[in-house]
Amino acid sequence: MKKRSFNAKVVKANVPSLFRGWKEWQPGDYVEGVYHSMYETTYNKQIQFNWRIEVKDCNFKVEKDGKLISPIGQILVLNSAGSLNKVMQESEIGWGVFVQYAGKVRNKKDPTDKQLYHNFEAVETGPLEGDAASNEDDSDL
Prior knowledge:
Blueprint: E1 18-19, E2 30-43, E3 46-58, E4 62-64, E5 67-69, E6 75-78, H1 82-90, E7 95-106, E8 116-127, H2 129-139
Parallel strand pairs: 1-6
Antiparallel strand pairs: 2-3, 2-7, 3-6, 4-5, 7-8
Protein backbone atom coordinates (compact mmCIF):
# COMPACT_ATOMS: atom_id res chain seq x y z
CA MET A 1 0.00 0.00 0.00
CA LYS A 2 1.38 3.37 -1.03
CA LYS A 3 1.92 5.85 1.79
CA ARG A 4 -0.23 8.94 1.71
CA SER A 5 1.69 12.22 1.43
CA PHE A 6 0.66 15.79 2.08
CA ASN A 7 2.01 18.92 0.46
CA ALA A 8 2.23 21.06 3.60
CA LYS A 9 4.67 23.88 4.28
CA VAL A 10 5.63 23.40 7.93
CA VAL A 11 3.73 21.60 10.62
CA LYS A 12 4.79 22.27 14.20
CA ALA A 13 3.18 20.04 16.79
CA ASN A 14 2.48 20.86 20.42
CA VAL A 15 2.66 24.63 20.03
CA PRO A 16 0.80 26.28 22.95
CA SER A 17 -1.93 28.36 21.37
CA LEU A 18 -5.26 30.10 21.86
CA PHE A 19 -8.40 29.41 19.86
CA ARG A 20 -11.43 31.51 18.95
CA GLY A 21 -14.14 29.76 16.93
CA TRP A 22 -15.64 31.63 13.96
CA LYS A 23 -19.04 31.72 15.68
CA GLU A 24 -17.44 34.04 18.27
CA TRP A 25 -16.27 36.54 15.65
CA GLN A 26 -18.29 39.66 14.82
CA PRO A 27 -18.08 41.61 11.53
CA GLY A 28 -15.13 44.01 11.86
CA ASP A 29 -13.11 41.81 14.23
CA TYR A 30 -9.54 41.58 12.99
CA VAL A 31 -6.19 40.02 13.79
CA GLU A 32 -2.82 41.11 12.46
CA GLY A 33 0.32 39.15 13.04
CA VAL A 34 2.95 36.78 11.74
CA TYR A 35 2.17 33.46 10.04
CA HIS A 36 3.72 31.00 12.50
CA SER A 37 2.76 27.54 11.23
CA MET A 38 -0.12 25.33 10.09
CA TYR A 39 -1.48 21.90 10.85
CA GLU A 40 -4.11 19.67 9.31
CA THR A 41 -7.19 18.09 10.86
CA THR A 42 -10.10 16.12 9.44
CA TYR A 43 -13.63 17.53 9.58
CA ASN A 44 -16.58 15.81 7.86
CA LYS A 45 -14.07 13.45 6.22
CA GLN A 46 -12.25 16.37 4.56
CA ILE A 47 -8.77 17.65 5.33
CA GLN A 48 -8.92 21.10 6.91
CA PHE A 49 -6.04 23.53 7.40
CA ASN A 50 -5.60 25.34 10.70
CA TRP A 51 -3.42 28.42 10.63
CA ARG A 52 -1.34 29.61 13.58
CA ILE A 53 -0.78 33.35 13.79
CA GLU A 54 1.53 35.09 16.25
CA VAL A 55 -0.72 38.02 17.17
CA LYS A 56 0.74 41.54 16.93
CA ASP A 57 -2.59 43.42 17.01
CA CYS A 58 -6.29 42.60 17.28
CA ASN A 59 -9.56 44.14 18.52
CA PHE A 60 -10.93 41.25 20.59
CA LYS A 61 -10.15 39.07 23.60
CA VAL A 62 -10.06 35.28 23.85
CA GLU A 63 -11.38 33.11 26.67
CA LYS A 64 -8.75 31.05 28.47
CA ASP A 65 -9.32 29.28 31.79
CA GLY A 66 -12.62 31.13 32.24
CA LYS A 67 -11.06 34.58 31.78
CA LEU A 68 -10.97 36.95 28.80
CA ILE A 69 -7.39 37.71 27.84
CA SER A 70 -5.67 39.60 25.06
CA PRO A 71 -4.08 37.27 22.49
CA ILE A 72 -1.41 39.86 21.60
CA GLY A 73 2.02 38.24 21.78
CA GLN A 74 0.55 34.74 21.71
CA ILE A 75 -0.27 32.15 19.03
CA LEU A 76 -3.90 32.17 17.82
CA VAL A 77 -5.34 29.30 15.77
CA LEU A 78 -7.58 30.26 12.82
CA ASN A 79 -9.70 27.39 11.52
CA SER A 80 -9.95 26.51 7.86
CA ALA A 81 -12.23 28.69 5.72
CA GLY A 82 -12.29 29.08 1.93
CA SER A 83 -11.38 32.76 1.52
CA LEU A 84 -8.82 32.56 4.33
CA ASN A 85 -7.20 29.40 2.93
CA LYS A 86 -6.61 31.03 -0.46
CA VAL A 87 -4.44 33.73 1.08
CA MET A 88 -2.71 31.59 3.69
CA GLN A 89 -1.70 28.89 1.20
CA GLU A 90 0.17 31.54 -0.76
CA SER A 91 1.79 33.05 2.35
CA GLU A 92 5.25 32.28 3.65
CA ILE A 93 5.90 31.34 7.25
CA GLY A 94 7.28 34.39 9.02
CA TRP A 95 5.41 36.87 6.82
CA GLY A 96 2.81 39.28 8.08
CA VAL A 97 -0.90 38.62 7.62
CA PHE A 98 -4.06 40.63 8.27
CA VAL A 99 -7.44 38.90 8.65
CA GLN A 100 -10.73 40.76 9.15
CA TYR A 101 -14.02 38.96 9.64
CA ALA A 102 -16.78 40.20 7.30
CA GLY A 103 -19.68 38.08 8.56
CA LYS A 104 -21.54 35.32 6.73
CA VAL A 105 -22.52 35.32 3.07
CA ARG A 106 -24.26 32.99 0.62
CA ASN A 107 -22.33 31.18 -2.10
CA LYS A 108 -22.51 33.55 -5.10
CA LYS A 109 -21.44 30.81 -7.53
CA ASP A 110 -24.35 28.53 -6.60
CA PRO A 111 -27.70 30.33 -6.11
CA THR A 112 -29.35 27.07 -5.03
CA ASP A 113 -26.96 26.74 -2.06
CA LYS A 114 -28.81 28.16 0.96
CA GLN A 115 -25.95 27.69 3.42
CA LEU A 116 -24.16 30.74 4.86
CA TYR A 117 -20.36 30.78 4.80
CA HIS A 118 -17.85 32.74 6.88
CA ASN A 119 -16.32 35.56 4.83
CA PHE A 120 -13.01 37.34 5.41
CA GLU A 121 -10.75 40.02 4.12
CA ALA A 122 -7.39 38.30 4.33
CA VAL A 123 -4.19 39.92 3.11
CA GLU A 124 -0.60 38.76 3.13
CA THR A 125 1.51 41.78 4.05
CA GLY A 126 4.82 40.15 3.16
CA PRO A 127 8.11 40.11 5.04
CA LEU A 128 8.03 42.32 8.11
CA GLU A 129 10.36 45.33 7.87
CA GLY A 130 11.22 45.20 11.57
CA ASP A 131 12.41 41.62 11.25
CA ALA A 132 14.61 42.42 8.24
CA ALA A 133 16.07 45.45 10.00
CA SER A 134 16.85 43.50 13.18
CA ASN A 135 18.54 40.75 11.12
CA GLU A 136 20.73 43.34 9.40
CA ASP A 137 21.76 44.82 12.76
CA ASP A 138 22.69 41.39 14.09
CA SER A 139 24.95 40.68 11.10
CA ASP A 140 27.16 43.67 11.98
CA LEU A 141 28.02 42.28 15.43
